[in-house]
Description:
Blueprint (H helix, E strand, L loop, with lengths): L11 E7 L14 H4 L7 H26 L3 H27 L12 H35 L4 H6 L18 H28 L2 H30 L4 H28 L10 H17 L4 E10 L2 E9 L9
Antiparallel strand pairs: 1-3, 2-3
Helix pairs in contact: 2-3, 2-6, 3-4, 3-7, 3-8, 4-8, 6-7, 7-8
Amino acid sequence: MLRVSTAGFRGSFRTFVRYHSHSHGHSHTHAANAYLQTTNLRDPGVRITWIGLLANVGMAAGKGAGGIIFHSQSLIADAIHAVSDLVSDFLTLATVSVAKKPVTKAFPNGYGRIETMGAFGVAALLLIAGTSMGYSSILTIAEFALGTESTFVHYFSMLPLGHHDHGKPLQMAEWNAMWIALASIGIKEALFQATNRIGKKQNSQVLIANAWHHRVDCLASAVSVASISGGQLLGLTWLDPFGGLIISGMIIRAGIAPLKQAISELAGNTTVANSSDTAERVQDEATLLVERLLPGWQLERVLLEQYGSNYVATVFISSPSKRTALG
Length: 327
């Protein structure tokens, strides 16, 4: 609902608008946050969302430990992918809670930019984690292919892009690592089916989006399964770190779009906000508001500025005698 809050009138007024119509995240909508903010476990949607979150915690720990123990860089990268999801969910939860606080004199446009800063932090973490893992995978493959004493390996290993045990012999990823990745696919597919079924039953787009989140996560684990098993069957030791490189690319790609969006919002870019469905809804509500409160006046335009999941609308109107925006 469009609400007017103005101390004076000079041809335009500003109004604070709450429309939670978008979200930041990691190549998918972090829609689960709406369900994680309640503990009503009698609601099937809430229950399956919390089950999914706890399963993610267990799988992230299991894949991380398994990747280290069974010498699989692709499984470690898959674990980083899972951890980035968890960090994103919890950081988004924290920032969304702050963003919902009412406006104050110090923050007349609300706290929505806190949510945008949280999105920036999540995207930055994704890029750092993906770059670090990708660097380690490239260096491992280069050492295997060119030798530890090659010029490329020598200079590339000096880059401060991540941790790597330079000169350590490349070990074949063990079959046990593949079974962990395969189990992850099974769990994620089960979560997809359960969440999607409940989402359709409740007609909840939030739950359906979160269900597809689980399905997309299967892709990273599938890369691990393919690279580990392929390495074992074909005797290609470098195939596992190559799988880790692919997953690293997925992580980096997931961070680029939300990072660009967060920077755009923090810089005050209004292009996206004013071309959204929300802009059309605000335009319609502003037209009705002007007709009701100021008969004879004309709405010239509405300018939306995005503050996280909130919007601030500047409404330009003109008097009956002068059809140009004032102020």
